[in-house]
Amino acid sequence: MKKLMILGGARYALPVIEAAHKLGIYVITCDYLPDNIAHKYSDEYCNISIIDKEATLDAAQKLQIDGIMSFACDPGVVTAAYVADKMGLPNVGPYESVCILQNKGKFRKFLTDNNFTVPMAKSYKNIDEALKDAGIFNWPVIVKPTDSAGSKGVTRVDSIDDLKTSIEYALSFSHSDEFIIEDFITQKGYSSDSDSFSINGELKFVSFDCQRFDKDAENPYTPAAYSWPSSISNKHQDELKSEIQRLIKLLGMKTAVYNIETRESTDGKAYIMEMSPRGGGNRLSECLRYATGVDMITNMVKYSVGLPIDEIEQKDYSGYWAEVILHSDKAGIFESLWISDELQENIVETDLWIEKNQKVGGFSAANEAIGTLIMRFESQEMLNRVLENQSKYIKVIVR
Hints:
Blueprint: E1 3-7, H1 14-22, E2 26-31, E3 44-47, H2 53-63, E4 67-69, H3 77-87, H4 95-101, H5 104-113, E5 121-124, H6 127-132, E6 141-145, E7 155-157, H7 163-171, E8 179-183, E9 192-199, E10 202-205, E11 210-213, E12 223-228, H8 234-251, E13 256-264, E14 270-276, H9 284-292, H10 296-304, E15 320-326, E16 332-339, E17 347-352, E18 359-360, E19 371-377, H11 380-387, H12 390-393, E20 394-398
Parallel strand pairs: 1-2, 1-4, 2-3
Antiparallel strand pairs: 5-8, 6-7, 6-8, 9-10, 9-13, 11-12, 12-15, 13-14, 15-19, 16-18, 16-20, 17-19
């Protein structure tokens, strides 16, 4: 029986575990939080910090694993690549390339050095140095940790007077004590945050979506909903596909699922904002499996343990799809989830993660989500009507 090590124990690992078990694969989940939900479904739990590469490698060698994955778990991506490299296991790409993709500062520099369209950006470890450079940016700017995901530590800054506070906030979420400042790119329509797949360095499936936000949430930069297809123009989608393929080739990437953020700007350009060799959080690969039938999760599991993978090809969406990230805009005690009767025929899946009388936080980051709602519509107009007026159709009731 083949053994697959999965780094991270959050619920986004559950479809990976399910896919592995269907293939008869023994699953070992790893992190330092034994109460995480995924450990209840795996065959074995290993208590280690997944950002500790050497400890993870030692555990992987002792357990004689056949493959390793960090799916929808940003902190484990570099470690998974390191372990795969050291043990000669199937890897998403060269370890050095994964390190570039996983660090926002290194990634921006790589894009710049290779003539990609990129916003003005610079990474720092010193606050005073960053404050001295404030004049080199085209304001407003975005400040982020270089090594975090899920919109943790991200703020838009409109005034130099607020820059230091935003930097300190970003650093509070950084494992490496590093942050990046970059020009804020004003989007045309909706930005995209969706999953794609390459086989042996060839981009086989690429998707773009509409990434939507809740302006009333504690963090208005935490994604609150997604919809397919994208608002990005066909011209820029074609350009982005070509540039993503060029990026994959330059980095020597192999077979991988990628979470890719792109943006069409009011300046007439299209930007690759981030590209991580992992499935995205918020169940994006699962939504795309519903919408297109393309199963990136099962194929990534197969590849990771050396099994032959299925042929993957570009497919259209079967209708108009939406995913709402259920959340409360304020902290409180969860009472119930209300969904309008008008939506019943559109609901494909409701996945609620909490019960009545449980505490909920405000939506300050992706980890404050309390569930997901996946829907299919017959028209773009109906989809837009629901997502642009969510409070009329969907309410998380708290006290």
